[in-house]
Write a structure and sequence with these properties.
The protein is mainly β. It folds into 4 domains: 74 residues, no CATH class; 55 residues, no CATH class; 58 residues, no CATH class; 78 residues, Antimicrobial Protein, Tachycitin, Chain A. It is 11% helix and 30% strand. It contains 4 helices and 22 strands. The strands form 8 sheets. The protein has a 5-stranded antiparallel beta sheet with strand order 6-7-8-21-22, covered by helices on one side. Strands 1-2-3 form a 3-stranded antiparallel beta sheet, with no helix packed on it. The chain is elongated. Bound molecules: 2-acetamido-2-deoxy-beta-D-glucopyranose. This is Chitin-binding type-2 domain-containing protein.
Length: 344
């Protein structure tokens, strides 16, 4: 909470310099839940403050700032002030859902985060912190412990909008066995449409899975093309000419494709729906060394898994193999998904 440069004592010639000093000392502090030792107050949200003790997560009831005022923190402590961008007075608790400087992740809740994949955009990704850990945008391991001075970047005020319609997700009626794995597939793909099933010219090449969203749940059904037609994923239709992706020598078994997982790069890339390089997992000793390249091949998503050379790790933001363990591979991270695919 200390100002990031020393301000000179007030003097007329120094007035402008002092203004600049105020701007720089408050502009960078968008902290949230950090207790000011000056007055034992913290910003609970951009418009609420809360009594606290340094490095202890406060449980005190938050107090609203007066209307038009925002919660700010600077060298004089935490206080409610009228927001004024001209003089650099900005609310705290504004870094939730923002990608960090390295564009690796964004905190999306006090204990959750999402990948940014080297962009400034929060991706369709859900990561959770290990039990008791909180997500902090400046933490090199993504999640840290309040007892170690790591406070959540997101406000607890924004966390309370979960546990609502959890009853509706379990309402998928027990599907017959042949379609249940199709529904698993669709739940993972999360995109309406028809999808090719396999590469065996005699069996799976003639089938497709149709995914649809029914009452908030993804439903999948396996169909077989009529007569001796083949499913063509380019036109999404049954055609009489065998697509080039179908093999008459293929011995690949599957009746339905496996749900997308990193160990199934084709289905994984179908879920990513964009060419490029993607991370495989969060295990520092195994999957953190690997990456998957996704590409579109004649209308079908293909994927190859690679391992970084030597003992290098794959960095999802720089999309390169690096020697430092990426933050996503720390044991403060409990789970991580990307586009619905679980990265282990
Ligand atoms: C803040 O809290 C600490 C610990 O309870 C206490 O020692 C300190 O005097 C308090 N400071 C102020 C300014 O109230």
């Amino acid at each position: 909470m200390s100002p990031n440069r020393v301000c000179p004592p007030l003097g007329l010639p120094l007035l402008l310099f002092l203004l600049g000093c105020l701007v720089s000392s408050t502009g960078v502090l968008a902290t949230c839940n950090v207790c000011s030792a000056v007055n034992n107050l913290t910003c609970y949200s951009s418009t609420q403050m809360q009594a606290c003790q340094v490095n202890v997560l406060s449980t005190a009831t938050p107090t609203d700032c007066p209307s038009g005022y925002v919660c700010t923190s600077d060298s004089s402590g935490v206080l409610c002030q009228p927001e004024d961008s001209a003089s650099g007075i900005q609310a705290d608790c504004q870094e939730c859902n923002r990608c960090d400087e390295t564009q690796t992740f964004a905190c999306t809740g006090t204990q959750s985060f999402a990948l940014c994949l080297g962009t400034a955009t929060v991706q369709d990704s859900v990561g959770t912190c290990a039990s008791g850990y909180v997500c902090n945008i400046d933490d090199t391991q993504i999640c840290g412990l309040p007892a170690d001075g790591v406070m959540p970047t997101c406000s607890y005020a924004d966390d309370s909008t979960t546990t609502t319609a959890s009853g509706t997700t379990s309402s998928t009626t027990a599907a017959p066995p042949s379609t249940s794995s199709a529904s698993t597939y669709c739940a993972a793909v999360q995109s309406q449409g028809k999808y090719a099933v396999g590469y065996n010219a005699y069996t799976t090449c003639r089938q497709y899975i149709e995914c649809s969203l029914v009452g908030g749940s993804w439903i999948g059904q396996t169909y077989t093309c009529p007569g001796s037609m083949y499913f063509d994923s380019g036109s999404n239709m049954c055609v009489s000419n065998m697509p080039s992706t179908c093999s008459t020598t293929a011995t690949t078994t599957s009746t339905t494709p496996a749900a997308p997982t990193p160990s199934n790069p084709e289905a994984y890339c179908q879920a990513m729906q964009a060419a490029g390089y993607y991370p495989v997992g969060t295990d520092a000793s195994t999957t953190c060394h690997q990456y998957i390249e996704c590409f579109l091949n004649g209308g079908t998503w293909g994927g190859n898994m690679y391992a970084c050379p030597g003992g290098l790790y794959y960095n999802s933001a720089s999309k390169t193999c690096v020697s430092t363990v990426p933050s996503t591979c720390s044991n403060t991270v409990a789970s991580l998904t990307l586009n619905g695919v679980s990265l282990d």
